[in-house]
Amino acid sequence: MGTPHHRHDNADQYDVARRRAEAIALVNSGLTQFQVAEQLMDKYPHYRKGDGTPAQNRVAEDISRALAYQRSELNQNLEEMIQLGNLRLQAMRRIVFGVIARPHYVLFQGQFVIDEEGNKVRDDGPILSGIDRLTRIEERWAKLNGADAGQELKIALERRADLEATVVTEAILAGFDAIEMDPGTRQRALEAAQARMATIEAELDAPS
User: Fold this and answer.
1) Which string of DSSP letters, residue by residue, matches 131-184?
2) What is the DSSP letter of 20?
3) pLDDT of residue 9
4) Which of 57, 104, 161, 166 could form a disulfide with 123 if both were Cys (CB 3.0 to 4.6 A apart)?
5) pLDDT value for 65
6) pTM, whole model, 2 decimals?
7) Can you tell me the distance from the alpha carbon of 104 to that of 114, in angstroms, rounded to the nearest whole number?
8) Which residues have CB under 8 Å from 100's CB, separation 6+?
9) Which residues have CB under 8 Å from 169's CB, separation 6+?
10) Cβ distance 70 to 157 under 8 Å?
11) What is the domain partition of the chain in residue ranges?
12) In 3-state terms, what secondary structure has residue 122?
């Protein structure tokens, strides 16, 4: 049975996850981060500044941290899939090695073929077939664990990062449009927002 402190921590984590999910849903529906903070600050005081105005920077932080958490979950799921795949391939290896190690003899019409010295003629077919199957297993292992797997993961994460950056940037630009910001001020604000996102990302990646 968990302690009261543990239950309290779980409740806090649930509230944070729910708050972030609602913020992301509203941003995806087309609201700016300021509008999200304004709409949710009564329900979630986290989105209210000390002076009572909407804290849109906290919405940005929540979205960034939620995306970082999703990336972490993705990496963990991939690692688990790789480990399960390795276990299956290892079981296949054992079966193939067992087939290769067993003696195999040539049969003709249900009878063993005997050589001139009275010995059963060895059948190399199952062994060669086992070696071929083993080669295919090793190729699969290389794809799962080797350079191919790393490259595919890198491409997947780069595409996800590009998508996340696009979503956040579009949300920021939508906010600029909502307050009719002039181009020069918009550019400076966008650069400041990008710098802030980079800072948040570095904080998230830093070891705790």
Assistant:
1) HHHHHHHHHHHHHHHSHHHHHHHHHHHHHHHHHHHHHHHHHHHHHHHHTT--HH
2) H
3) 61
4) 104
5) 87
6) 0.45
7) 13
8) 126, 127, 130, 131, 134
9) 190, 194
10) no
11) 4-205
12) strand
